């Protein structure tokens, strides 16, 4: 950046006062101030954008390093599991005297969904018994219930 001291700024102000004149100097100073403010905001925006792009590149680099580390760990775990499975199969075949390839998946039972519809209400009591016993199956308002069970012959 440019380094202006107080003496240089005073000299520029005196030359501007002589060249521009005292009537137009406040308006020119205001315009120059707004232009300098816009320039500073533009420079700050450019700096912020550059910093964001640098941070984004660093994050992408860290992500790729993390992904390679995860892949390496996954490969090593998979190799260990495969070697343990092979050793288990060898031991099993030696113990039983057969050469079948039993994997770990065949040893564990497979989960099967019960295929029940839990939303469907299933009762043990038959409908004909509920109707005969007078069990309420539907919701009724109090007035409807009174009207339903009012003895015949009583009128309002």
Task: Provide an overview of this structure.
Belongs to the TatB family. It holds the Pfam family TatA_B_E. Its main location: membrane. The relative contact order is 0.03. This protein is 67% helix and 0% strand. It contains five helices and no strands.
Which secondary structure elements does this structure contain, and how are they paired or packed?
Elements: H1 6-20, H2 25-96, H3 104-107, H4 127-133, H5 142-148
What's this model, at a glance?
The protein is built from 5 helices and no strands. It is an all-alpha fold.
Tally the helices: 5
Classification by helices and strands: mainly alpha
Which whole number gives the mean pLDDT? 84
Biggest sheet layout: none
Which band does the percent of strand residues land in?
under 5%
Regions with pLDDT < 50 over 5+ consecutive residues? none
- Provide the gyration radius in Å: 44 Å
The first-to-last residue Cα distance is 100 Å
Q: Count the beta strands.
A: 0
Provide tags for this entry.
156 residues, mainly alpha, 5 helices, 67% helix
């Amino acid at each position: 950046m440019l380094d202006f001291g107080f003496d240089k700024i005073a000299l520029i102000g005196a030359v501007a006062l002589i060249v521009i004149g005292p009537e137009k100097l406040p308006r020119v100073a205001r315009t120059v101030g707004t232009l300098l403010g816009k320039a500073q905001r533009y420079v700050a925006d450019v700096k912020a954008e550059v910093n964001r792009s640098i941070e984004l590149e660093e994050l992408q680099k860290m992500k790729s390093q993390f992904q390679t580390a995860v892949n390496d760990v996954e490969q090593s775990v998979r190799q260990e599991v495969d070697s343990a499975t092979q050793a288990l199969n060898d031991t099993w075949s030696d113990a039983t005297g057969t050469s079948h390839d039993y994997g770990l998946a065949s040893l564990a039972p497979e989960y099967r969904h019960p295929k029940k519809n839990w939303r469907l209400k299933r009762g043990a009591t038959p409908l004909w018994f509920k109707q005969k016993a007078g069990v309420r199956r539907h919701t009724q308002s109090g007035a409807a219930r009174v009207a339903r069970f009012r003895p015949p012959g009583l009128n309002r």
